[in-house]
Write a structure and sequence with these properties.
- The complex is a heterodimer of chains A (about 160) and B (about 130).
- Chain A has about 160 residues and is mainly alpha-helical.
- Chain A contains eight helices and no strands.
- In chain B, about 80% of the residues lie in helices and about 0% in strands.
- The chains are: A mainly alpha (about 160), B mainly alpha (about 130).
- Chains A and B meet through α1, α2, α5, α6 and α8 of A and α1, α2 and α3 of B.
C-alpha cells in the first residue's frame, strides 16, 4: 500500500474506529493503543484493501478481536472495578452527574459493540455479524434484548433526550 | 436506515429513546489525541522490516541449532564409544585424552547452543 493512500484511508476511517473502540472499552488510552495496533496489523496484511469501504469491515473486525483480547487480559481488573465503583450506585445517587458513557458502560462489552455498530455505524445485521463473529440470524434477537436492557437502564437512570 | 434495522425496530417501542441516546453518546467528545498517520505508517514499516529480517534469519537460526545438536550428539557418541572400546587398565592415558576431548567437544556444543538461545532471547526482548 502506498503511503499517501494509507494517509487518506487513515483519515477516513480513524474517527469512527476510535469512537467505536473508545465507547466500547470506556477508556480512551487503551482505545488509542488498540486503534494503533489495528492499523499496524492492517498494514502488515499481504495486500490490504486501499478503499475505505472495503477496509472498514477488516478494521472493525480486527478492533473487535483486539478488544476481546483486552477484556480477557483485564477481566479480573474490570470485575473488581465494576464491583468497587458499583454501577448501581450511579443510578441511585442523584448527585452524581448523569453521564451517558457511564450508562452505556453498564451494558456488557459485546452488547456495547452491538449497539454501537447498529445505531452509530448503521451497519446491517450481516455486517454486524461479520464484525462480531456471530451468526446473522442471532443479531436481531440480540439487538432486541440489548435494546430492552438499555431502555431499562435509561429509565433507572432517569435519562431523557436533551431535545425533549 | 437499513431494512434490518427497520424490521427489528418494529419489535420495540422504545426505539426513539434509544436512538436519541445513542446519538447523544456518539456526539460526546472523546478527548485525547489519536496517533498521527505518519507515526503509524513508519511504525508499520519498522514492524514490516523486522518481520522480513526475522523471516530471513529463521533458516540460519535453525541451521545453528541443528549444528549444535549434531555436535552434542557426536560428542556424547564419542564418549560412549571410547568408554566401551577402551580397555579398563591398558593405555589409560589415551583413553583419558579421548574422553577429555569428547567432553570438550560436548561442552563447546552446549555453550554454542546456550549462546544462540540467549542472543535470540535478548534480541526479542529489545524489539
Amino acid at each position: 500500500m502506498d503511503e499517501r493512500v494509507f494517509y487518506a484511508l487513515y483519515e477516513q476511517t480513524r474517527g469512527s474506529l476510535r469512537a467505536y473502540v473508545a465507547k466500547s472499552l470506556g477508556n480512551i488510552t487503551h482505545a488509542d493503543d488498540i486503534v494503533q495496533e489495528v492499523y499496524l496489523r492492517f498494514l502488515r496484511l499481504p495486500s490490504p484493501p486501499a478503499d475505505a469501504r472495503e477496509a472498514r469491515p477488516y478494521l472493525f473486525r480486527m478492533a473487535t478481536n483486539l478488544m476481546v483480547d483486552h477484556w480477557r487480559r483485564h477481566q479480573r481488573e474490570i470485575k473488581a472495578m465494576s464491583t468497587a465503583e458499583g454501577c448501581e450506585s450511579v443510578s441511585r445517587d442523584p448527585l452524581i452527574r448523569l453521564d451517558l458513557s457511564r450508562i452505556f458502560l453498564q451494558l456488557k462489552p459485546r452488547e456495547r459493540q452491538l449497539m454501537w455498530l447498529a445505531y452509530v455505524e448503521r451497519s446491517t445485521h450481516r455486517e454486524i455479524a461479520e464484525v462480531l463473529g456471530l451468526s446473522a440470524r442471532s443479531i436481531r434477537v440480540l439487538l432486541f434484548r440489548v435494546r430492552e436492557k438499555l431502555t431499562r437502564l435509561l429509565r433507572e437512570n432517569g435519562w431523557k433526550a436533551s431535545h425533549e | 436506515m437499513s431494512r434490518d434495522m427497520k424490521e427489528s425496530h418494529a419489535e420495540n417501542e422504545d426505539v426513539p429513546v434509544i436512538t436519541a441516546f445513542m446519538k447523544e453518546l456518539a456526539a460526546e467528545p472523546l478527548g485525547g489525541a489519536p496517533a498521527k498517520a505518519t507515526f503509524v505508517w513508519w511504525k508499520a514499516q519498522l514492524a514490516r522490516r523486522w518481520d522480513a529480517e526475522h523471516r530471513a534469519a529463521a533458516p540460519v537460526t535453525l541451521d545453528e541449532c541443528i549444528c549444535a545438536g549434531l555436535a552434542a550428539i557426536a560428542g556424547t557418541g564419542l564418549v560412549a564409544w571410547r568408554w566401551a572400546t577402551s580397555p579398563p587398565i591398558a593405555a589409560p592415558a589415551a583413553a583419558v585424552a579421548s574422553i577429555a576431548g569428547a567432553l570438550i567437544l560436548l561442552t563447546s556444543a552446549m555453550l554454542v547452543v546456550g549462546d544462540v538461545i540467549v542472543n535470540r532471547h535478548q534480541v526479542r526482548r529489545k524489539t
